[in-house]
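name: query_chain
kind: protein
chains: 1
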Amino acid sequence: MENRPRLKTGQIVNSKTVRYTLQRKLGDGRYGCVFEVLNDRKEVFAMKIEWKTTDRSDPRLGIEIAILRHIRQNTVSPHFIDYVDRASKPSYFFMVTSLVGANLETLAHDQDDGKFSHRTALGVGLQVLDALKDLHVLGYVHRDVRPRNLCIGVGDKTHNIFLMNFGCAAVYQKAKKIRKPRENVPVKGKTEFTSLSSHSKKEQSPKDDIESLIYTLVYLCNGLPWNASTAEDSIVSQKKKLREDGVTFFRMGSRKF
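structure:
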């Protein structure tokens, strides 16, 4: 990808007022990466970096920052990270936030059988519902709820679930007025977890986040029936079919409480 810099452990990255030292890479993706960083006072944070590219017309970090700041101005919910700092460099943007732990996809894979117990999955679901309620009340829909975008905390917050990554999020209502739906909306989120409305290129609303959460919880404790599918048409067909036989869908796994 053009203009991708070589960032490495020990490198110094400055914002307007703070100097950060890159400690270790936490994640890597097509459009950027995430590092654990230290400031000069030895405080630990996460730095999310987004490469500047010609194939993305607007930086998604700007959307994330706006939403995170709006959340903190209006709620004390424990399910969202804190925005700390940001800056723009010649080849990338970055934002600094509070640090979280592993995502739920990684944690599930680390289990002996690669799954959560039903009890654990339900506990996750209750926390994520709280987070989505707070997000929806503020007028946003996440549009990318999935295990990789749900993380545990660190330190004394390891039992707390954080809703992460708002790059796909959108406003669905403003001043308590529902936004006029667009006729053709690009599919958002990961194919395995996105809603049927998204597959149909319809405007998403809070119900679509809940649908993605249901897929997420079943994935964590049972696996999804379309796990082996790669074609979107096949996945859509199976999602439609489960509406005729939801009992089988929820009984797929054999794990007990």
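note: Residues 126 and 139 are 20 Å apart (CA to CA).
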